[in-house]
Specification:
Length: 629
């Protein structure tokens, strides 16, 4: 609605002032038809011929215009007085059309030109030779072909490079008419206007004259319109929207009650002018100022610029999230709490000499480059060093304020594991080779591998198996072969660490057993893992039924044979088999009575040693060693 009011006011202004600011008799109004531009017969006031005998066309008392011809470097032209000032811009408009006196003129004729020029020193003559004034500048020139035979309105801006006193219009065909089928070109012109090119221009500044677009609460906003050109009155509208918004600006108010302010714009204190109308610029908004300027020649020209009033409150608070990067180093992403538009953010990662220390005295130095923006990420941190983030905020209206927050040394990530699988292979003279392969981690980790004797399956000893040096640090697998024999208990210790996490480890006690012969008659080796490591013992103390309470038979069992298990009164809910590689398979069962279940060992099972895991309704877990022949 307000925008409509603004438009109506401008339209009203257009009606009240002179709708066109033309040179004298720019409509070429004539009191006769025919030869009307010569001193002896001047029918068109304020216009005279520069050469030839231009013709007044149309209807006396109605619309009249000029008709001009040219060929063989001769022809007709007209002039009028106009004071063109060097360096000043003018808006020139006229209607024009072009024809020839023959059908199908050639390109030489059609490339002849129609001309509008600024000149000085032109006189009047009936001779048809083209004048050659010493002071002349082309305003507009176009070919007959491009103008065409239909009336066209031409509007253009023109800035003279020197002073001129006349406006000159004429066609020019330099080609010989006889050599071009007796052709001539014809130019018709009407409704000529020359206006001073009014211009609306503005920018914002403070009381000291410093150009700016960001202001603080309570600071006076000045609008500098001194670069506007030739205005005699102006109109100002104010619109606004929240800073950072992409929505449309909403109308607020206008200068004055409902009209124009007479005079040139100059430098205006917008804050004071609108405060006098009980309107104030408040922080948190972007303001759009629309300036329209006009004069007696041009209705109005508009320019639009924006400025912001920033808040003088800001918070340096931030949150952060630590994570382990794919290269195994710590990454930290920080997010500013205050994301106000116009607020500058300064970020730095600092190394300190103690955990939690953030003082300058404890600071070793800055790590990496300074960053900016609402969100930043620091990479390459190590758990062996101490860091803190320093975050400062400032703006035109906010003095520097900062927050320092110490970072944790360790981070965790999902799917972190130190676990590994074991696989045997045969060797000569009863010796065996065992390969351990680490489970995958989603980020880089270091690996440390070592092998020890494990009396009775215990993983607490530290007696190394001779001939098997520790293996470190990037290999995700390790092979041990020296002095390993079947049926002897060992354990492998696998340690994992990187710049994100300290050392963590898994220990697995195992022995290599022979579970039959292969087709070629060689032993078929398998890994039997011990369930008596410390962590398993602790779990079994709470969860596992003692072996003596239950019975599994027959054991060993042949593929296809039925297997019976006495439950000691526990209600079994699920049975699983686990092979030496850790693969798990559900084993179907049926209940024979309250204290026994029966299972069928299908031909999907290969001969070997398995762990049978029975889950009971009471939360108990029963494990049994199962040998399948």
């Amino acid at each position: 609605m307000r925008k409509i009011i603004f438009t109506k006011v401008l339209l009203l202004f257009c009606v009240l002032i002179n709708a066109q600011c033309v040179i004298n008799n720019g409509t070429l109004n004539s009191s006769c038809i025919g030869d009307g531009y010569n001193t002896s017969n001047q029918c068109v006031s304020n216009w005279l011929a520069t050469h030839g005998t231009p013709t007044a066309m149309g209807t006396v008392g109605g619309n009249t215009w000029v008709w001009l011809w040219s060929h063989s470097n001769t022809g007709e032209g007209i002039r009028t007085s106009y004071n063109f000032q060097s360096g000043k811009t003018y808006l020139i408009s006229f209607r024009v059309r072009a024809t020839t006196n023959i059908s199908n003129p050639n390109s030489t004729v059609l490339n002849s030109r129609l001309n509008v020029r600024a000149a000085s020193g032109l006189s009047s003559t009936n001779a048809t030779g083209i004048p050659n004034p010493t002071n002349v500048q082309t305003i507009w020139s176009e070919t007959v072909a491009n103008v065409g035979s239909t009336w066209r309105t031409i509007s253009l801006f023109y800035t003279p490079t020197s002073n001129f006193s006349q406006l000159w219009l004429y066609p020019l065909m330099t080609a010989d008419s006889g050599a071009n089928n007796s052709a001539q070109i014809q130019m018709e012109v009407d409704d000529i206007t020359v206006n001073s090119a009014i211009n609306a221009s503005l920018f914002f500044q403070n009381a000291a004259g410093t150009r700016k677009t960001d202001f603080c609460p309570g600071e006076d906003v000045y609008m500098n319109g001194t670069n506007s050109i030739d205005e005699t009155q102006y109109y100002i509208d104010i619109w606004r929207r929240p800073i950072g918004s992409t929505g449309a600006f909403q109308w607020q108010t206008q200068l004055g009650t409902n009209g124009w302010t007479l005079g040139q714009v100059g430098v205006l204190n917008l804050s004071n002018l609108f405060a006098a109308q009980n309107y104030f610029f408040v922080d948190g908004f972007e303001y759009q100022v629309k300036l329209a300027v006009g004069n007696s020649c041009v209705p109005w020209v508009e320019a639009t610029r924006t400025f912001r009033v920033l808040s003088n409150n800001a918070s340096p608070a931030f949150t952060f999230v630590s994570s382990c990067a794919p290269n195994g180093t710590i990454s930290v992403t920080a997010n500013a709490t205050d994301t106000t538009t116009g607020l500058n953010h300064w970020w730095a990662l600092m190394e300190s000499n103690a955990q939690g220390a953030t003082s300058d005295a404890a600071t070793i130095g800055q790590v990496g480059l300074t960053q900016s923006g609402n969100t930043v990420t620091f990479t390459g941190l190590s758990r062996t060093k101490f860091y803190y983030i320093k975050h400062g905020v400032y703006s035109t209206c906010v003095n520097w304020t900062e927050q320092r927050t110490a970072l944790p040394q360790n981070v965790s990530w999902s799917n972190y594991t130190t676990n590994f699988n074991l696989a045997p292979s045969s060797n000569l003279n009863g010796n065996v080779t065992v390969t351990a392969a680490a489970h995958n981690n989603p980020v880089f980790v270091n690996h440390h591998w070592s092998i020890f004797y494990a009396p009775n399956g215990s993983t607490t000893g530290n007696s190394n198996v001779p001939g098997n040096p520790d293996q470190c640090c990037t290999n995700a697998s390790a092979t041990f072969s020296a002095n390993l024999v079947v049926n002897q208990w060992y354990y492998i210790k696998h340690g994992v660490w990187n710049d994100c996490m300290p050392w963590n480890e898994t220990r697995k006690a195992f022995r290599v057993v022979i579970q039959g012969l292969l087709a070629d008659g060689s032993p078929n080796y398998a890994i039997e893992e011990s369930l008596t490591d410390e962590k398993t013992k602790a779990r079994q103390a709470n969860e596992t039924v003692t072996q003596e309470e239950t019975v599994l038979y027959p054991n060993p069992v042949t593929v296809g044979e039925k297997l019976t298990f006495t439950t000691a009164g526990y209600e079994v809910t699920e049975v699983k088999t686990i092979d030496y590689t850790g693969n798990t398979r559900i084993l179907p069962f049926s209940k024979t009575n309250d204290k026994a279940i029966e299972m069928s060992v299908s031909n999907q099972y290969k001969p070997g040693i398995y762990t049978l895991k029975l889950s009971c309704k009471e939360g108990k877990v029963i494990t049994k060693k199962l040998v399948i022949k």
